Amino acid sequence: MKKAIILFFLIPFLGFSQITDKLDYVSPFNEGYSAVKKGNQWAFINQKGNIVIDFRDDLVLTETNKEKYPIFVNERCLISEKKDGISYFGFIDTSGKTVVEPLYLNAANFNEEFAIVIHVYKNLLGKDVLNKQVVSYEITEILINKSGEVKFSLTEPKGIILSKEYIKNPPKINSKFLTKNLIAVLGKDNKWELKKL
Q1: CB 81 within 8 A of CB 88
Q2: Backbone angle region of 7, left / alpha / beta, with phi > 0 → left and psi within -120 to 50 → alpha
Q3: Does pLDDT of 174 surpass 70?
Q4: Rounded CA gap, 75 and 143, in Å?
């Protein structure tokens, strides 16, 4: 009889498995995933409480309801990687696989099937008197799909100095989605232009 009573009280606790504890933050669910923070790293759990993307330090925080945490938007989450002191942005899918390499100086979350990113182009100008290559850099806002394919350019290229001394923060994205098929692009003259997809 004692064994039956002990099992009766233990069964509810045996059926409950604690996946992780001592978390610093747990976000609301978005697209079936919740971001959880431990120290300086973030992971994603599913609705069963299982970790589906392990703790990592490259997930980009998105401000949502006055809080900041990583989120999936259309099955894509922003990631960031530093190269020569400059942050570059890309995307992972819901398995944690990098589907868009961190190549962009800034990136916005996906809106339906597309995301606006800032792409940097390297132009070879020739060689100087010491036979070293002379280069210039230009940036432009482009539209990419979920695979990272460029759909079209949104802004005219403009020159930039590509060094960590000049790029302490990612350049601001000036284009924005108005609807699923309509984008507003801020031009050099501070006037808006509407572009249809």
Answers
A1: yes
A2: alpha
A3: yes
A4: 17
